[in-house]
Queue: 2 jobs
Job 1
Amino acid sequence: MEKVLTGIQPSGALTLGNYIGAIKQMLKYQDMYESYIFIADMHAITIPQDPIKLRENIRSLLAIYLASGVDPKKNTIFLQSENIYHANVSWILECLTPYGELGRMTQFKDKKEKNANFSAGLLTYPVLMASDILLYDVDFVPVGKDQKQHVELARNIAERVNKKYGEIFKVPLPLIPHDGAKICDLVDPTRKMSKSSDNPKGVIYLLDDEKTIRKKIMSATTDSEMRVVYDMENKPGISNLINIYTSLSNLTIKDVEEKYKDSNYGTFKNDVADLVVSVLTPIQEKYYKLLESAELDKILDAGIEKTTSIAKEKYELLKEKVGLYR
Ligand code: TYM
C-alpha cells in the first residue's frame, strides 16, 4: 500500500488554515493509504517557545487530531522528539545539503525577518523536515501551499543522496489541496492565515467560540463591489471566503458564485460563519473530552514503538552508505 506522512508544529493554537490545508487531507488519506501523522515539536523550537506552553500545545495538538477524526487505528501517530533518528538523519542530510539552498527557502527568509537573533535551527529546519519524510519511504506528503517548497527540497535531497550513494530514499510527491491550499488572513487577505500572526482578528482558531468566529468572519476585509465572485487578485477577501466555503462544503467555486449571485456580502458571510461553526463545534466538544484522557499517551507510546524500528533501519543504512561505521 502507498504511504503518506504529514505533521503540524505545536507552536501555537491551530488555525482554520491548518485544518483545511492539512487535517482535512489527513481525514481523506487515512482511508486510502498507510498513514503516518506526527507532532513536529522539534520544528517548534526553531523559534523561542515557553516550555510549559509548548508541552501543553503538544498535548492539545494530539487532542485536535483525534477530535477532528484522525483515527488512531488507521494512522501511526507519534511525537517527533521521541524518535531520536529524525535528528540523527537530519544531521547527515545537513552535511549533504548546500548552505545556499537553505538560505533561499521563502519561509526562512520571512521568519528570520521576524526573529532578531534567529537560530541556526531556523535555517536547517527544512532538512529536519526532509528527514521526517525520507525516513519512512513515503509516496506522498499532504501539505498546504506554504510547505510545498520544503517538500520539493526533500525530493532534491533524496535524489542527490541516491545518486551519490545508491538507492536509499524514496522520492515523495507533495499533495496540495485544491481550493484550500492557502487560506488567508481575514484582516489582510493577501497574507497566509498563520498560527503566529500578531493580529488574532484575522485568524480563526479551531478553539475559538461561536461568537468570536462569527464576529471575525462578519468583519473580514472585503471590497466595495458587492459581488460574490472569485478573483484572488482583485478581490482577495471575498475569494478567501469562497475558498473557505468550498473547502468545507461539497460545492465548487462556480456553485458558490451561482448560489450567491443575487446576495450581498452580509448574507454570504453569515453563511460562511454558519458553515465554519458547524464544522468546528463538534470538534471542540470532542476535544475537551479527549484532553484529559489517558488514551493520548497510549497512542503516542504505540506510535513511537513502531516508528522507531522503521527509522532505525533507515538510519543504519544511511550511516553505512556514508561510511559512519567501524
Ligand atoms: P505548520 O505547523 O506551519 O502547518 C501545518 C500544516 O498546515 C498547513 N497550513 C495551511 N494550509 C492552508 N492555509 C493556511 N493558511 C495554512 N497554514 C498552515 C501547512 O502547509 C502544513 O501542511 N514544517 C511543517 C511541519 C512539518 C511537516 C514535516 C509537514 C514538519 N515536518 C514533514 C509535512 C511533512 C510546518 O511547519 O507546518
Job 2
Amino acid sequence: MEKAWWKEAVVYQIYPRSFMDSNGDGIGDLRGVISKLDYLKDLGIDVIWMSPCYKSPNDDNGYDISDYRDIMDEFGTMADFKEMLDGIHQRGMKLMMDLVVNHTSDEHPWFVESAKSPDNPYRDYYIWRDPKDGKEPNNWISYFSGPAWELDQTTGQYYLHLFTRKQPDLNWENEKVRYEVYDMMKFWLDMGCDGFRMDVANLYSKVPGLPDGKPRVGRVGAENYQDGPRIHEFFREMNREVLSKYDIMTVGEMSDVPLEQALRYAGTDRNELNMVFQFEQDLLDTVEGERWAYRSVPLPELKAVFSKWQTQLHEKAWNSLYWTNHDQPRTVSRRGNDTDFRKESQKMLYTMLMTMQGTPYIYQGEEIGMTNVSFDSIDDYDDVEIHNCWRERVIKNHEDPDRLLEGIRYRARDNARTPMQWDDTEHAGFTTGNPWLKVNPNYKEINVKEALADENSIYYYMRRLITMRKEYPVAVYGDFKEYGPEHTKLYVYERRYEGQKLYVVLNFSEEPVPFSMPEEWKGAETRLLISNYEDEPLTDRRIRPYEAAVYSGGC
Ligand code: ISL
Ligand code: CA
C-alpha cells in the first residue's frame, strides 16, 4: 500500500466559535486559536481542520458563506488568519479548510445578483424554477424542516435550498460556477493552506429535471441529489484543475454514502478525493425518518459497521475515523458512560479509533472527555436545525414539547458546540464575557487545566495513543482481522503489517467480562503497548469495565 503523510496524520477539528474567545465578546475567534496552538502541538496533532471561518451572516454558524475570500467579522481579520496559518506551519502542523460549496449564503453577492431578475448574468448560478400548480416545483424536503424551496416574490420563481432558506444551492451544472469554486480553492491553497474538508460533498449533482422524490418519512427527494449522476465527473474535474496540483489532503463529508460509492470517491486510482466521512455508525442509533428519536445499539451492530469499512476499503481506498464532530452528540455520552466510567470509556473508545486503518479525527474537547449538555429550555439551544423543527412540530403541529426536548437533549448538534472547557473559572476560561452558547455546567470537574494536572487524564492517554500510532506503522497500514464478531461486550481484533502485529481488546460494557487470550497471542514477543487502567490488565482471565489493552508482537 502506498504511504502518504495524510494517511499517517492525526487531525484535530476546531469549531472556532466555541474554541477560545480572545476579546471577551463571547465568541471564539482566530486569535483564540493562535493562543492554543502549543496546546495542540503538545497533544501530538498534525493537522487542524477548521470549521468555516469565512464571512457569514451565521444563519448556520458559518456554513452559510457570503464571501469565500474573507474572514468572518467575529473571528478576526485576514491578517489574523495569516498569522494563525504561519503559527500552525511553524509548529510543523498543517491546516485543512472547510469548503462549503453545495450552497452559499443568500447574502453572497452571486445570490443577491441572481435574485434580481431572470435575465441577470448570475441567475443560472443557482437553481430557480417556476411554481408547479401554484406550489413548490417538487416535493423535496430540506434537511432543516419544511420544503426545500423558497418562493422569491420579486421574480415569482422558487429557488432550491437543501438546508435553510438562507443557504441557496449552487447550480453545479453551470461550468462558470464550478470554475469560480476552483479559483477560490486555489486562492486558499496558494496562500499555503493544506487541504479541504468538503461539506455535503455528495450532494452537488442533482438529477436533471429535478423529479419528485419517492414518498418516505423525512428527507423526501434524497435519491435525486445524493451521489447524483455527474458527481464523479465533477470531482475528477476538480482533481484535474486543482487538487492534483498541490500536495494536500481532502476529505468529502458524505452523509448516507454507501460503501460502493465511497470506493469510487476515495478509490486509490480514481483521482477524486483522499477519503470520505461516511455516516453508517452515526445512523445506527437513529429511527428511520425521525430525527430526534433514538435507540440503543447492540455492540455487534456497531462492530459490524467498523469491521466492514476496515476490511472492504483495505488496499482499495482510505478510511476516515471519527466518533464525533460539530454535528453529532459527544462520544462518551453516546457510546460510553459519561458518569461512572467517563474516563475509562472515553479512553477505550479512542483506543479503538487509534488502532484502526484510516486517518483519525479528534473533535475539540474529546481529549478531555467533554459530555453532552442537558439544557432545561429550548431557548438555551442555538442551532437553527432545532429551532426550525420546534416551530414546525411544537408551535405549528402541537406535538408534545417534552418528548421533543428529550430527543433534542440526546442528539442536538449543540451538544458538541458548547464552549471548550479550559479551566474551572467562570465560563470555563473560554471567555471573559457572555458565551454565545451556555457552558456545560460540569466544567468545574471537566476541563483542560484539570486534565493537564492529572497524569492519568484522558488528555495524556490520548497523547500516548497518538505517539503509539506514530511508532507502529501497523496501526496505520495494517490489515484487519476480527475475533468473535457476535460477542455482545468485547471488540477484539488483530492488525498485521510487514512483520508487525497489534492485538486489540476492548470492553464496551460496564461489567467485567471473562476472557482468555488466543494461544497465538501468548508468545514471548507479545508486549503490552498501552492500556487504560493504572495496573496491568489481566487479559488472560477477565477484562474490566471499559478496559482497553493493545499488545504488539511479531508475525
Ligand atoms: O447534522 C446532521 C445530522 O447528523 C447532518 O444531517 C448534517 O446536516 C449533514 O451532515 C450536513 O452537514 C454539513 O452541512 C450542513 C451544516 O449545517 C453542517 O454543520 C455541516 O457539517 C450545511 O452546510
Ligand atoms: Ca471573540
